[in-house]
Each structure stands twice: as C-alpha cells, then as structure tokens.
Amino acid sequence: MTPTAPTPAYRRLGVEERRSQLLDAALSLFAHRAPDEVSLDDVAEAAGVSRPLVYRYFPGGKQQLYEAALRSAADELRDCFDEPREGPLLPRLARALDRYLAFVEGHGTGFSALLQGGSVVETSRTTAIVDGVRRAAAEHILSHLGAAGPGPRLRMTVRMWITAVEAASLIWLDEDRQLPADELRDWLVEQFLAALEVTARRDAETGAVVRALSGDG
Amino acid sequence: MTPTAPTPAYRRLGVEERRSQLLDAALSLFAHRAPDEVSLDDVAEAAGVSRPLVYRYFPGGKQQLYEAALRSAADELRDCFDEPREGPLLPRLARALDRYLAFVEGHGTGFSALLQGGSVVETSRTTAIVDGVRRAAAEHILSHLGAAGPGPRLRMTVRMWITAVEAASLIWLDEDRQLPADELRDWLVEQFLAALEVTARRDAETGAVVRALSGDG
C-alpha cells in the first residue's frame, strides 16, 4: 500500500469493499437477466476484474453468488423500511414505500428473479432469506404502529398487506410500470388503511391502531 | 379381466385410475411431510402396491412425483373456484373460499410445502404450475365480476387479494388455525370488498364493479 491515492482502475480494495463491488456488479446483471443466465465470468467482466478473483470470492460458484446477491438485496430492502419514528404514521409508511418502489424500479428484472427464485437455486435457503425480509418488514410496521405482541388478526392483516405489496410490485414491473410510482404508493397506503379498518370490525387491538392512524393525519 | 368384481386388495386398475390412486397416496403423505421427505417407496407403502409399480408410473423419480402431485393439487384448487354463475356475487365468492379453505385444511403441511416449493424441486416449472392456479383464480373472479378485458387497476386489485388470501391461509395453517374457518372466510370476503372500494376511488371500472356488488347483496 502506498500513501498516495492509487488510480481507480488499479485501486486495491479491502476484502469487504471488493466483495461489495462484485455483488453490485452481480446485482446490476440480475437487473437484466435471470439468475440462471449470469455466470461468474460475466460478473468478472462487469466488475473489470480477473476471473480467478471472482472465483476466490465465490468458490461455491453460481449458487453462492446468487445467495450472496440475494442477501445483499435483502439488506438493501430492510434498509427501505428503516424509517425514523417521527411525525404521523401514514406518511412514514409512504416514505418507506417510496424507497421500496425505487429499489424495485432500480433492480427491475433482477428484483423479480431474485424474489421469485430462479431455476438454479436451492430454494429452501433462498426462501428463508426472502421470508426474513417479509418478517422484518412486518415487525417494522407493527412496531411503528405501537403493537408490541400483536394478536393474530392484526399480525395477519399486516402480513397479508406486505404480500399484496410484493405482488403489486411484481405486476407493476411486469406491466412496464403503467401506473406512476407515486400513484401506486398512495393506493398501497390506502389499501393498508382499508385492510386495517376491515379487521378493526372484529378486533379491538386493530381498532385502536386505526384510531391512532386517523387521529394523527 | 373377469366379469365378476375382483376383491379390492387385488383389484386391477386402469392406468389413469392407478395413477390417481398413487397421487392421492402421495398427497396424503405431503399433508404431513415436506416433499423432500417423501420417497417413492413411501408412496408404494401408503398405496399398498409394489415399489416397481410406483417406479413404472414415475420413472423420473421424486421430482416427477412431486410435480405430478402439484399438478393434481393445482387441478383440485382450480375446481374450488368453479362456482355456478347464479345468485349474488359475494356469496359465490364465500362458497369458493369455503371450498378453498377446506382444501387447505385437508392438505395441511402438504399445502404449504407444495405451494412454497421444497428444496428438491426445480422451481421454474413448479412455480409456473402454482402461478397458473393464481391466474386461473383471477380469471374466474374477473369473469364473475363481469369484467371482460379488465384494466390494470382492477386486475391488480384482484391479483393482490388472491396473493393475500394465499398468505393468510399459510399463516392460518402455521398458527394452527386459531381463527374458525368461517370467520376467516367472512373476513377475506370483507377484505376483498374493501380493496375494491379503495381502487374504485381512482378507477371507474372498479367503481361499477363495487356498485354491482353492493346492489345484489
């Protein structure tokens, strides 16, 4: 290592930095191609590094690369939901959805492929990663709603809405984003409120949440 | 073949009849175990037939058995949605949901495992089977609603609700069916109506559907 800054093309990266450079390259490839169609050689080319270097970072091959990319996308997705606990609740949800939809838009095909699982993947492990994101999103929302130890009806409502958001965003991508992102976001927020209102008819806990939501707009 | 009825234990079945007997045996095993844990030998034992016979029907092994079982479950699921076009719309939906929830209850773990995909499966093909059921369900609903060539908002609303129903039923199973099935069914119907009402605020086509639904109760 020299004290002067090396030129970008030959910059030596630390292990974590290099790994994340390779994952970024992989994610941008997954944005246009299915996991099956992305090889470690493609990643080397996209990142401008040698093939042996990519193999050193992902000795498990395609499967390991795919899982690492999925984990990295999962981490990014988790960050989308990380919203400060300030101000009215529904705008917080709207901001989280804006970040989520920007992520979906940015990763395009790769998002669908990563979330739906390609044909090369060992699904039990990748399903667990994706489910982890869904669970994290549900916990974020429930904690913003102030529901510690929520009952089955409230939890089910939140989890159903998260699945519905995921389905909506896959359809949205599939239909070339016909709806503007901000219209989709507002509509998803309204769907959330409506779903909670239906549950509130049978569940006092959800009733309290709905009152809190309509009281702070 | 003799003109007198053979005793059940030694009854000779036609190819289709035998195949469906084996698939029934497989589905009942999948109801208690993940696809990974069901072997062709287990199916032979459960069906009371020889192992070579099962191998003759499923020469592709576990993967072929799994796919055939999934297809058979998919056909059963499609039948759930096949409701006569008579009487008010929401009770039709409620009857379809009753059949669907009975199917979910009857197949238990196997339902989750089949729909979520086990670790042995080649997902692209099995995902296509499951997606086919979702699409068929959406088409059934849209056609009952009288929406030929529905716009993106109405279609998205229906497909989101179908995904949400699927998520709800998996959570329901996972939580040992805490809610009674008829309460879950009513709640899902109410969620459907509420989702349509939200969409109707932005979409005239969905507005007409909501008016038709509330007019025929």
Automatic annotation (TrEMBL), chains A, B:
Residues 39-58 bind DNA. PROSITE patterns: HTH_TETR_2. Residues 16-76 form the HTH tetR-type domain. One of its GO terms (molecular function) is transcription cis-regulatory region binding. It comes from the Bacteria. InterPro entries: DesT_TetR_C, Homeodomain-like_sf, HTH-type_TetR-like_transc_reg, HTH_TetR. Keywords: DNA-binding, Transcription, Transcription regulation. This is Transcriptional regulator, TetR family.
